[in-house]
From TrEMBL:
The gene is trhO. Its EC number is 1.14.-.-. SUPFAM superfamilies: Rhodanese/Cell cycle control phosphatase (SSF52821). PANTHER family: RHODANESE-LIKE DOMAIN-CONTAINING PROTEIN 7-RELATED, THIOSULFATE SULFURTRANSFERASE/RHODANESE-LIKE DOMAIN-CONTAINING PROTEIN 2. This is tRNA uridine(34) hydroxylase. Residues 126-220 form the Rhodanese domain. The lineage of its organism: Bacteria, Pseudomonadati, Pseudomonadota, Alphaproteobacteria, Hyphomicrobiales. Transmembrane segments: none annotated. GO terms for molecular function: oxidoreductase activity, acting on paired donors, with incorporation or reduction of molecular oxygen.
């Protein structure tokens, strides 16, 4: 048996996020789903796995059902498969942020950088005038990254603003392109850079996972493997499972 895996997120106003935990947990349990979902006032984030029909039912309820009342009608979704169940249990957690930057003024629902489709990413990051930044932590970067990408050498995403203040200058770095695993960290990172006065900020829509799903290996500028937050550990082109690593990431779910 193979399992369907869904990586998902959306920034949305969820003032009632605490009340959503119990029915979301029940929904997932009913359909045999495992994995982790994070709920916060700013939205939802997580990766879940289960039978095809179960994942499809949960995703449909999130997007169009009564539980969220249409507030998750444009979730970022990426599907892949696993030969074995990649999660040991189901967790629905309540958090202050669905990805922790610790910058309260940053709101991706109000201000975000320019999305770049996977098909257009190679041309953008090949431009010598563009600063390319990997927003993930140093363990993830070590496993794989794009050519020319700067490594912020962070242990956690909340250290990203310190990297920006030390390394970048809005007057000097006119064009900045960023990427992450599934796109969520770049939503916040791009919003943060715009708030700091950077003029042109781009980010890879759907993240590395969308790029690996879309771009054939012979056209790829990706080097290495992409860490994922489940027991598969890493994915390659076509979102195919790769060999496991021995260390653990200190990052956050995509």
């Amino acid at each position: 048996m193979t399992y369907k895996v869904a990586a998902l997120y959306q920034f949305a106003s969820l003032a009632d996020f605490e009340d959503l935990r119990a029915p979301l947990l029940e929904l997932c349990e009913t359909h045999g789903i495992r994995g982790t979902l994070l709920l916060s006032p700013e939205g939802i984030n997580g990766t879940i796995a289960g039978p095809d029909a179960g994942i499809d039912a949960v995703v449909m309820e999130l997007e169009t059902g009564d539980l969220f009342g249409g507030r998750l009608n444009h979730m970022e979704l990426k599907f892949s498969t696993a030969a074995a169940m990649p999660f040991k249990r189901l967790k629905v957690r309540l958090k202050k942020e669905i990805v922790t930057l610790a910058q309260p003024h940053v709101d991706p629902t109000k201000q975000v950088g320019t999305y770049v489709a996977a098909e257009d990413w190679n041309a953008l990051i090949s431009d010598p005038d563009v600063v390319v930044i990997d927003t993930r932590n140093r363990f993830e970067v070590k496993m794989g990254t794009f050519q020319r990408a700067l490594d912020p050498e962070t242990r956690k995403f909340s250290q990203f603003p310190d990297f920006v203040s030390r390394t970048l200058d809005p007057a000097r770095n006119q064009k900045v392109a960023m990427f992450c695993t599934g796109g969520i960290r770049c939503e916040k990172a791009s919003s943060y850079l715009l708030s700091q006065g950077f003029a042109e900020v781009f980010h890879l829509k759907g993240g590395i996972l969308k790029y690996l799903e879309t771009i054939p290996p012979e056209e790829s500028l990706w080097q290495g493997e992409c860490f994922v937050f489940d027991e598969r550990v890493a994915l390659g082109h076509g979102l195919v499972e790769r060999v496991a690593a021995e260390e653990e990431s200190e990052g956050e779910a995509p």
